[in-house]
Amino acid sequence: MMDFTPALRVYAAHRRRTLAKRDYADQQIRVFHQLLGKAASTRFGLDHHFQQIKSIADYQNTVPLRRYDDFWREYWQTAFPRLDNLTWPGVVPYFAVTSGTTAGASKYIPVTAAMNRANVRAGLDLLTHHLTHRLRSKIFGGKSFMLGGSTDLVAEAPGIWSGDLSGIAVKRMPWWARALTFPPLEVALLSDWEQKLARVAELSPSEDIRILTGTPSWLLILFDRLSSNAGRRLTARDVYPHLELLIHGGVNFKPYRARFEEFLVGGAELREVYPASEGFIALQDHTHEHGLRLLVDNGIFFEFVPVDELESAHPTRHWLETVEPGVNYAIVLSTCAGCWSYIIGDTVRFVSRDPPRIVITGRTSYSMSAFGEHLIGEEIEDAVAAAASGIGAQVTDFSMGAKYPAGQGDLGGHLYIVEFAQSPSPESLAAFARAIDEILCARNDDYRAHRADGFGMKAPEVRAVSSGSFAAWMKSRGRLGGQNKVPRIINDEAVFASLKQFAKE
């Protein structure tokens, strides 16, 4: 196979010079004006007087914050699937279908030609950073393996398609690039996740895989299947000897890091990405401790609202010039796909402003406060990761929810359902539960107050489940594989009840 890495090096050298320029706020201002100028004649642009807006302050005074349901009801639903000049010029050719991280109706997120180009540029940025840190890279000398959902798309109307983002990428892929990708189209189109997993585990070891991409929990299932097929525990060098880069995203990686490092063992490097259905937001340009670098010149204008103000009548709307490190913000996007001051539901915290780097702290609805404990996703995930490390265990997946009082005199608390790589002993499991409790008490004042002397909440309970339990549960919900994520915090009692039933069985 011809190695296209030299061509990538030429592009990467040019892109590095651009990224080295430290005018991040100016870049966002340019994106802001480009977006408004492009959409001024759309229905949304006319409704909100885009031609009269001269500054970010004007925009924030004119365009309110909205969520998906607002856009669907006010602009998209009546015309769907043919959105023509409504919130972005022209006809929207693709829709990314997503249900988020928990139960909920499917959402159809517009994906325009401009957004497709922006997503490609984001991928090239990721490879640029890879080449910067791996001088002898030959990453385009082999194939890129994406472990995603079915790439089969639904024809909503002539020339208009819906499906997974991975399917949209395959649909747009030029013929010459198909030789650089795995799996082959007939396997990529499979909608049955178990059948697809079996096929890629069978076929991929004979391919020259240089890049591997996927959601961490599903990648771990692939690793286990590869080892099962071989009859012994494999590392990346055993099965993909030329693997250079493993790209992951979508969930907090801390609980998974130990297992991935064990699989990679001094070979490929890990890089995290933050692609949402609404746009590619950030990626890892340095070590994981430095957070993810915001893509400030790639078709998205970012706003940031302090989480505790999000539901207020007049929340403070920051942009890159006014954010502060350490504050938990809801992230808000205006994009080249026609989303305007759109609350995507994720929360982030800045760890650096120069360059702008963030860490994902959870979801706006991704918190646990059944008893007034006010825990956010980041705190819970960090506690689970640290507790696992403390007992020398590796977590494959987990979810937690509230366990309400069963009767008079009983106290409520939290139940953690955890799938470990190796089943811990009862003593280790008890230590794991104690560590979670101690870490959360040290980190969150409200939790500590409710746990004081067992007055408001009892100690957390941990239930270990057998290997494959979460995959079986996700399958029962029609959420197996691809980009579907195991919900870490479950506030829906019916959903948590179904998981608890699986745990019992």
Write the layout of secondary structure elements.
Elements lengths: L4 H15 L4 H16 L3 H5 L8 H7 L5 H9 L17 E5 L8 E5 L1 H21 L9 E5 L6 E4 L2 E4 L1 H8 L8 E2 L2 H4 L4 H11 L5 E6 L1 H15 L5 H4 L5 E5 L7 H8 L4 E8 L2 E5 L8 E3 L5 E7 L21 E8 L6 E12 L2 E8 L3 E2 L6 E2 H14 L4 E9 L9 E8 L5 H18 L1 H7 L9 E5 L3 H8 L12 E2 L2 H12 L1
Parallel strand pairs: 1-5, 3-6, 3-7, 7-8, 8-9, 18-21, 19-20
Antiparallel strand pairs: 1-2, 4-5, 9-10, 10-11, 11-15, 12-13, 13-14, 14-15, 16-17, 18-19
Helix pairs in contact: 1-6, 9-10, 13-14, 14-15, 16-17
What can you see in these coordinates?
It is a single chain. This protein has 17 helices and 21 strands. Helix 13 (377-390) crosses helix 14 and helix 14 (426-443) packs across helix 15. The chain is of the alpha/beta class and 505 residues long. It has an eleven-stranded mixed β-sheet with strand order 6-3-7-8-9-10-11-15-14-13-12, with helices on both faces. It has a four-stranded mixed β-sheet with strand order 2-1-5-4. It has a four-stranded mixed β-sheet with strand order 20-19-18-21, with helices on both faces. A hairpin with an 8-residue loop joins strand 10 and strand 11. It folds into two domains: 1-365, Rossmann fold; 367-504, GMP Synthetase, Chain A, domain 3 (2-Layer Sandwich), CATH 3.30.300.
Quickly list its features.
11-stranded mixed β-sheet, 505 residues, Rossmann fold, GMP Synthetase, Chain A, domain 3, 23% strand
